[in-house]
Specification:
170 residues, alpha+beta, 6-stranded mixed beta sheet, globular
Length: 170
């Protein structure tokens, strides 16, 4: 028997906010296995690039993206490179602080959730601070007493990148 997820819109939004906060916490505290476990194996992860001042690219297969993984193996590879310091650009890792707000939740007819949220990530490395900010777009699929990420799109509003942009930056 599957545990019940909240049906009440206020409780549902609160539970989704907690889910997104947990994801941010796992990245900030470098609990990579816990973070990866939030994604389905077939989860798509996409950071599109901007095509113009107000439009970002629409097709990760035919247009340039800042990052695109069609499934979780790409994220697992990034984590492997970070852990083993095979990513020279990410060594040492910056200290990060993710803030997530303005969470909006829409329940789809098939029970999945379409979620948007604003985010800011503050980073500190080599004596300098930087930040990225933007909007998340998620598709969350029901999994036991919580959800798993089926799709995550990260829009980076300040895409003039002064430093490395990686999974821990957004």
């Amino acid at each position: 028997m599957r545990a019940e997820l909240p049906n009440d819109p206020v409780r549902l939004r609160s539970a989704v906010e907690e889910f997104l906060s947990r994801e941010a916490h796992y990245v900030d505290t470098r609990q990579w296995d816990m973070w990866l476990a939030l994604f389905e194996e077939g989860a798509e992860y996409w950071i599109p690039s901007w095509d113009s001042e107000h439009e970002y690219v629409s097709d990760p297969h035919d247009q340039v993206s800042l990052m695109y993984y069609p499934d979780r193996t790409g994220l697992e590879d990034r984590v492997f490179r970070i852990r083993t310091e095979r990513s020279a650009a990410s060594t040492p890792l910056p200290r990060t602080c993710h803030l997530v707000s303005n969470v909006l939740v829409a329940e789809l007819p098939d029970g999945m959730l379409e979620v948007t949220a604003n985010w800011v990530t503050h980073s500190f490395r080599f004596g300098a601070s930087s930040h990225f900010f933007g909007r998340y777009e998620y598709l969350l699929a029901r999994h036991e007493t919580s959800w798993r990420i089926r799709k995550k799109k990260v829009l980076v509003y300040n895409d003039t990148i002064p430093t490395v942009l990686d999974i821990y930056s957004v």
